[in-house]
Specification:
The complex is a heterodimer.
Chain A: E1 3-8, E2 11-16, H1 49-55, E3 60-61, H2 69-77, E4 81-84, E5 87-89, E6 94-96, E7 107-110, E8 120-123, E9 138-141, H3 162-174, E10 179-185, H4 191-204, E11 209-213, H5 216-229, E12 235-238, E13 251-255, E14 266-271, H6 283-292, E15 293-303, H7 308-315, E16 320-324, E17 337-340, H8 344-349, H9 355-367, E18 370-374, H10 378-391, E19 396-399, H11 406-414, E20 420-423, E21 436-441, H12 450-457, E22 471-475, H13 480-497
Parallel strand pairs in A: 10-15, 10-16, 11-13, 11-14, 12-13, 14-15, 17-22, 18-20, 18-21, 19-20, 21-22
Antiparallel strand pairs in A: 1-2, 3-9, 4-9, 5-6, 7-8
Helix pairs in contact in A: 3-4, 12-13
Chain B: E1 2-3, E2 10-11, H1 17-20, H2 31-36, E3 60-61, E4 64-65, H3 66-73, E5 84-88, H4 92-102, H5 114-124, E6 129-132, H6 137-143, H7 147-155, E7 163-165, H8 177-182, E8 188-190, H9 193-196, E9 200-207, H10 212-223, E10 228-235
Parallel strand pairs in B: 5-10, 6-9, 9-10
Antiparallel strand pairs in B: 1-2, 3-4, 7-8
The chains are: A alpha/beta, B alpha/beta.
Family (chain B): Belongs to the ComF/GntX family.
Protein name (chain B): ComF family protein
Organism (chain B): Fictibacillus barbaricus
């Protein structure tokens, strides 16, 4: 679709080409329109409430809105909707209006059937959420806000540990103010419960809250828990393929990627696993967080392994921080053991595994305990799995990020149908399985950073009935990151005793 | 250093003597992604070009697969499609790659296959009209581009847009084989029949699944006077 610009009632305005019957006007892609002021709000206009509920606080493509262009444009003319350029030209290249991408290599152009341009540029960075191109406007709601119901009682009778309680109190005190706070909690501290009281207060004040996390698995785990404890609140979960994206919700649980769809929506933003790839890595995601919040907002960061930059900010008192060094069951974190296992790469090429690792696998199979084996890459994953399969006769499987049945496999592992699960770093966070041992194969590989190793070690000993899971790093020479990770864990345990 | 068109990871090219002589033809994907693609090679069905190594022996008769024999035995379809050649096996990874350019609209990703397509084209057929399988008006608007046309442009700068798809039907990928074979009316029309008369035609599409789309297109072209129709697809 192209747009035309025209004078209407002495004002320069714009309209989709087929809504104006004037062959004298030249239709152009949206990004080539002259600048126009959006029409003023016409308070006597009767707006569509379902459109308000879907679009309020969002930034969406025409294709994402189940309304006719006639309806949408009528709302624009009455000042209830604003159009914004999808991909705009900058001094040095392009800028994506949705994800903020400015990297040249992440733009491409094609001969577009919609705007008839031979070189319609689109953003490849956020393509998974629908194509934003030079001819697609992004729509936002400029009409009245959605009013939330006052019923938002927390229905939860669990108890917080002393560490959780301190963090929870700090959060509650800050609700309604501007600022930011880091909750630094060990893996298994029970971060979700820490949020309950603060969220309740915010919801009762009529504020809108979002919990953003890098992983879909975590959204799927959190949403039902929150729905259970806030039974009267409108809650929606956002992830690729979610069906709740059109619901008006005061509390949103979203993957960080889905935040691209929001604009000035949240008063309180909880960013889970703030250090996790890809959040800390990808600057466009930071852009998404800053655009998804209202101008006055409170940011709460959760992490078990804050980045060095963040720790420094805490040390210099630029960022306030609460630590929860103890797991909710009160036991210390299992300290990883390092086992030298020779040139594992070369052995693998010959189709063999290092002897210490083989011995461990055999014992593990005999003991009947579940184990997760982390490996550095997908190609290593397949080889290792095959060799182990030929060695022991227990149910074994492997998962990686692109695995279409990842969710099912993790479920099977949880249910005990798989005893040994080989995984890339994709399962380093969020997966909680009781009675579990953990091994890292090739722990000296550079994908295993300090935070990845701490997270991986945090998988073990999660249940109070089995607080001492085994954690072993199989390596060919200690890496700095391995040493740092072990130091990190020991320090957290020490802090707990003090 | 280059960036993988699919996963955006940076990578350095594998270097070997064949590169030096310009003999190796690679996709514009990183090595990890390219390794998951399976080239169609070894024994293939002489008609549809599927790899025999991937399915049980009992589905094969001579140098043809059972599906092609079924087509050829039906007198309406005997000899309609001379041959099809495909680059890759339609495995889970390629399904995702195709979904990404076709349904998510990442048109640039198609270019990753240009070098390999060109090479394959040189092997099988020259001096043919290159005609991409068209989309219906509605579908073309929805996607913003026709993936088959973009693939065809990778083969040659001279492509002929001589086919049109009449009606907006349900997506082929949502139909079963029987449903695809049953459809009676041919969805394609030849725009300028005089141009194809006595010509060889090479059809281009993204996936050969049952072969019915390509055969319907071949049929209208032969009816319009084309001499011979073969096809090339990215996946089989």
């Amino acid at each position: 679709m192209r747009f035309v610009s025209l004078f209407l009632n002495n004002r320069l305005t714009i309209a989709p080409e087929h809504l104006v019957d004037d062959p004298g006007l030249k239709p152009v892609p949206f990004s080539e329109l002259p600048f126009t002021k959006p029409p003023p709000l016409n308070t006597s206009f009767v707006f569509d409430e379902s459109l308000q509920q879907i679009l309020h606080g969002k930034l969406l493509l025409l294709d994402e809105l189940p309304f006719s262009i006639e309806t949408l444009h009528e709302h624009y003319e009455n000042g209830f909707i604003d159009y914004q350029v999808g991909v705009s030209r900058t001094k040095y290249g392009h800028n994506c209006g949705r994800c903020g991408n400015e990297k040249d290599r992440l733009f491409a152009s094609f001969s577009c059937y919609r705007c008839k341009s031979e070189t319609c540029t689109y953003c490849r960075n956020c393509i998974m959420m629908g194509r934003v191109s030079q001819c697609t406007p992004l729509l936002s709601w400029t009409g009245p806000k959605v009013q939330w119901s006052g019923e938002n009682k927390l229905e939860w009778d669990g108890k917080l540990s002393s560490g959780q309680n301190v963090a929870s109190q700090r959060f509650v005190e800050q609700v309604g103010l501007d600022g930011e706070l880091l909750i630094w909690a060990v893996c298994g501290a029970g971060k979700t419960e820490v949020l309950f009281k603060g969220i309740e207060k915010a919801l009762q004040l009529g504020l809108r809250v979002c919990i953003a996390t890098p992983r879909t698995d975590v959204v799927l785990e959190l949403a039902p828990r929150l729905k259970k404890v806030f039974p009267h609140t409108m809650i929606a979960s956002y992830y690729g393929g979610s069906e709740e994206r059109e619901l008006p919700a005061q509390l949103v649980i979203s993957t960080t990627h889905q935040l691209y769809r929001f604009k000035q929506a949240f008063n309180i933003m909880v960013v889970d696993e703030v250090d996790a790839f890809p959040y800390s890595y990808d600057t466009t995601l930071q852009h998404a967080v800053s655009r998804a919040v209202t101008p006055d907002h409170f940011l709460l960061y959760l992490s078990a392994t804050p980045s060095r930059l963040m720790k420094k900010a805490v040390k210099n008192r630029k960022l306030s921080c609460v630590k929860i060094p103890r797991r909710f069951h009160g036991y210390p974190l299992p300290v990883p053991k390092m086992v030298w296992s020779g040139e594992w790469k070369k052995r693998l090429e010959r189709g063999e595994l290092p002897t210490p690792f083989v011995n461990w696998i055999r014992e593990q199979a005999k003991s009947g305990r579940r184990a997760m084996i982390f490996v550095p890459s997908v190609s290593i994953l397949k080889k290792v799995t095959e060799i182990i399969r030929g060695m022991v006769e227990v149910p074994i499987d492997c998962v990686h990020a692109e695995d279409p049945i990842r969710k099912e496999k993790v479920e099977q592992f949880r249910a005990g149908e798989i005893q040994l699960l080989v995984s890339t770093t994709i399962l380093e966070r969020g997966v909680t399985v009781p009675f579990l041992d953990v091994a890292v194969f090739g722990a000296d590989h550079n994908v295993f950073s300090e935070s990845a190793l701490v997270q991986i070690s945090g998988r073990a000993g999660r249940s109070k009935d089995d607080p001492n899971g085994q954690v072993i790093y199989f390596h060919y020479g200690k890496s700095l990151e391995m040493v740092r990770a072990i130091k990190h864990i020991k320090e957290m345990n020490k802090e707990d005793n003090s | 250093m280059s960036y993988c068109l699919y996963c955006h990871q940076s990578y350095t090219e594998r270097w070997s003597w064949t590169d030096l002589f310009g003999l190796s033809i690679r996709t514009l994907l990183c090595l990890d992604c390219e390794d998951i693609l399976e080239l169609v090679k070894g024994d293939i069905c002489s008609i549809c070009g599927r790899s025999f190594s991937l399915f049980p022996e009992q589905y094969r008769q001579g140098d043809c697969c059972n599906d092609c024999i079924r087509w050829e035995e039906n007198e309406d379809w005997t000899g309609i499609l001379q041959q099809n050649r495909s680059l890759y096996v339609y495995n889970d990874f390629l399904k995702e790659v195709i979904a990404k350019f076709k349904y998510r609209g990442n048109a640039e990703l198609i270019k990753a296959f240009y070098p390999v397509l060109k090479k394959q084209y040189k092997k099988i057929s020259q001096q043919a009209f290159i005609i991409p399988i068209p989309l219906s008006e509605e579908r073309n608007y929805e996607r913003g581009f026709n993936q088959a046309e973009l693939l065809a442009r990778g083969i040659s700068n001279h492509i002929a847009l001589l086919l049109e798809r009449k009606t907006h039907e349900e997506k082929q990928s949502k139909k079963t084989r029987d449903e695809r074979l049953e459809q009676k009316e041919n969805p394609f029309i030849v725009i300028e029949p005089n141009k194809v008369q006595g010509q060889k035609v090479l059809l281009v599409d993204d996936v050969y699944t049952t072969g019915s789309t390509l055969r319907y297109a071949a049929k209208v072209l032969l009816e319009a006077g084309a001499k011979q129709v073969s096809s090339i697809t990215l996946a089989r």
